[in-house]
Amino acid sequence: MSLGNDKIKVLIVDDSSSSRVMLKRLLETDPGIEVLAAAQDAYTAARTMKDALPDVILLDLEMPGMDGLTFLRKIMVQRPLPIIICSSLTDQGSARTVEALEAGAIDVILKPAPKNDQERAEAAETICNAVYGAAQSRGRGRAVRRRTGPAAPVPPSPKLTADEILPPPNFKKAHPRTEPIVCIGASTGGTEALREVLCALPPDAPGIVIVQHMPKGFTSAFARRLDSLSQIRVFEAADGMPVQQGHAIIAAGDRHLALQRIGQNYRCKVIEGSAVSRHKPSADVLFRSGAAEAGANTLGVIMTGMGDDGATCLGEIKQIGGRTIAQDEASCVVYGMPRAAVERGHAQQVMPLNRIATAIMAFARMHRGG
């Protein structure tokens, strides 16, 4: 594992020569990352790994010979390593990406195709953040701290707050008692964490709205897969979709998701706009809308993930009288978002992943019976 002054060593596995060159250039904009090798197929990658193990593998799924999914499964059996799927957006590709996440991949990014300097800066920020998150994943030793190097020729866009999308809640506003609403935010490692939580919930679970950091196009396949596994129904968010008992709704990969109260009921509000906390969708936007629209009817849950998205506005749910939970460090793949919430004093409870579904149902029973 890359510690101290060592760089994080990345192995790129992609059959496209142009993609390998582009990914290498983007990764090497960060002085804390080194490209160990760029392999054209799984067999070349395997030979490289006999000589030197990478800290993180960046893997394309669509390759001749041994495909990426088969290669991933072999690695997970023989020598598990943090693997990021770097995929093109196709219907088949998104479904296979969900399979890869279930097989042990830690994250997914959309294969970048930057057209100008600004897009290259944004793509470099995305891919390097994914590598740092993977390097910090559970079972890989101490956390790797992101280093600051020389300023990029074109810096990424500024880190915006939820104020960019929604005004702050009115903490003096009284909210009528309604059905309980659960807002969940997750990132790196969150796909499998969400599967565990949602599959443990009974059909009468409260309405749930979710932000999972995933690229555009992959959330629909992810929602369909969870819907096939869970007792509750799971959908990708659409504007105006009702939030109701027994349903979980996952934000689309390129839109913010917010709650909107209509009388005693809630529906989804899908919002265009800038990235917040460098993410779109953003957990901060979802949590702020929960505080503003549902008030004390809201349970906010922040789960495994790199960075601090959601940590600030989880505090708004707490401040307005709702309940808040953070996943504990031991059960997180990356203890970033929950750590930020805990350190700011915004998590009322800290618990392992396998207790979160029970806590959701306890909140629902208490709220309905109160």
TrEMBL record:
Domain CheB-type methylesterase: 176-367
Catalysed reaction equations from the record: [protein]-L-glutamate 5-O-methyl ester + H2O = L-glutamyl-[protein] + methanol + H(+); L-glutaminyl-[protein] + H2O = L-glutamyl-[protein] + NH4(+)
Keywords from the UniProt entry: Chemotaxis, Cytoplasm, Hydrolase, Phosphoprotein
A Pfam entry, by short name: CheB_methylest
Active-site residues, record numbering mapped to chain: S187, H213, D309
Residues covered by region (Disordered): 139-171
PROSITE patterns: CHEB, RESPONSE_REGULATORY
Gene3D superfamilies: 3.40.50.2300, Methylesterase CheB, C-terminal domain
Post-translational modification: Phosphorylated by CheA. Phosphorylation of the N-terminal regulatory domain activates the methylesterase activity.
4-aspartylphosphate modified-residue sites: D60
Subcellular location: Cytoplasm
Domain Response regulatory: 9-126
Top enzyme category: hydrolase
Function: Involved in chemotaxis. Part of a chemotaxis signal transduction system that modulates chemotaxis in response to various stimuli. Catalyzes the demethylation of specific methylglutamate residues introduced into the chemoreceptors (methyl-accepting chemotaxis proteins or MCP) by CheR. Also mediates the irreversible deamidation of specific glutamine residues to glutamic acid.
Domain notes: Contains a C-terminal catalytic domain, and an N-terminal region which modulates catalytic activity.
Protein name: Protein-glutamate methylesterase/protein-glutamine glutaminase
Source organism of this protein record: Marivivens donghaensis
